[in-house]
Amino acid sequence: MENNKTLHLLTHHRSIRHFKNQALSADVIHTLLEAAQRTSSSMFMQQFSVISVTDANLKKQLADITTYPFTKSSGHLFVMVADQRRNEFIGQEADTDTHLLHDGDRSLAAFDDAALAGQSIVTAAESMGLGAVILGSILNDAQQVIDLLHLPKLTFPVFGIAIGYPDEKPNLKPRLPLEAVHFDNYYQDPDKKTLDAYDQTIEKYYAQRGTNNRVETYRHHILHDMQVSPQKRSQILIVLKQQGFFEN
Amino acid sequence: MENNKTLHLLTHHRSIRHFKNQALSADVIHTLLEAAQRTSSSMFMQQFSVISVTDANLKKQLADITTYPFTKSSGHLFVMVADQRRNEFIGQEADTDTHLLHDGDRSLAAFDDAALAGQSIVTAAESMGLGAVILGSILNDAQQVIDLLHLPKLTFPVFGIAIGYPDEKPNLKPRLPLEAVHFDNYYQDPDKKTLDAYDQTIEKYYAQRGTNNRVETYRHHILHDMQVSPQKRSQILIVLKQQGFFEN
């Protein structure tokens, strides 16, 4: 089996949700941003931005939205932003039609670029001994995040990333077996037996882990979140369109 | 400045488009997939799948769609798939309402998960001395990719990744300066002077690079792609909705 330090990091990722009370230095933050900048982007359009949330009041309000106190108590908080506004600015300077920036393709490109850069930040952080967790939960109220961070049309918050010095070392959380997520040439529908075996693995993991242990299989987890979603989150398409994305 | 091998990789990424005629071993492919599997996913729902395209005819057709011959001549070709079908399968087994899987929130989650895992694959590949390029261009004809790879409803091709042993070492392509993409607390609209300076940087880069050199600023590049888009690509929202995404 191939191995090196980077592979070890990538194959031993665990999200960290308990951080020591220590802020990241400006130097470390700069290094994380360099990793984000260098990431591939769709057609070299670099359709993302990153906001460092440092204001205590903003952090508190974001923590309320995510419901996770570590949103405000981590060593640093980034919000990754899908960004077609910069391209629109260039189009407006040249007095050019900018309608293409609103279509589904460019919308996906901006979200992809933000996600790719965000994953580089996570990996870069972990390589320095930091821990991180991606906070999709900022989308519990996307409109409020837009208002708080003054996000103009053609920008959208994709996820937050809370980063800091880890104050826990959780066990690795078992992933779906490879045969359930990887196929040769053609998509394969899920296999009941594979899911049965994975249910048992996850049930054992939840029962044995040190904190927040519970009785839950993978199917339980998926079914629960299929039945309930925060109302504002299930209506996010309205906000996406208000911001000028997925218009056509 | 912080440094380690992983940071060096991340801050020296260049996309590779010329590969040696050498296929990746099964062992290397397995390692890349392990990196994908371990990546964070939205609410631990693992809403992505990966297809290894090995069939020569499929590769040829995908190369025609992307217009890049290296799509079929790289050492390996992955297609990252946004996948809510696995969750739908679990919902159908339990005879549960699955409508939430079609909303904008779950659609974005699936695309995010696929992009995050894809970026882990790129970083893992580069750590082994391989080169990679992300192929958003498979979306030049999303419907055909869906047909070719037998992608059912609630799945969607996000991008391809061509990987192989590099047969080039391009210069690092200059990125937008940090002040154009990173802000404290509040979004900042682009600054004309920053874009002017970056235009000059990019113009010099394109003029001096070894292959495919040309006279083009960053603004030229952005403006060109704002005015023309492959027709099927600019109508991708229709295909997204046909596949059951972004329904509400």
From TrEMBL, chains A, B:
The keyword Cell inner membrane is annotated on this UniProt entry: no
Keyword Nucleotidyltransferase in record: no
Alphabetized Gene3D superfamilies for the sequence: NADH Oxidase (3.40.109.10)
InterPro entries per record: Flavin_OxRdtase_Frp, Nitroreductase, Nitroreductase-like
Stretches assigned to the Nitroreductase domain: 11-165
SUPFAM superfamilies in UniProt: FMN-dependent nitroreductase-like (SSF55469)
Domain of life: Bacteria
Alphabetical keyword list: Flavoprotein, FMN, NADP, Oxidoreductase
Similarity annotation: Belongs to the flavin oxidoreductase frp family.
Protein name: Nitroreductase family protein
Native source species: Pediococcus inopinatus
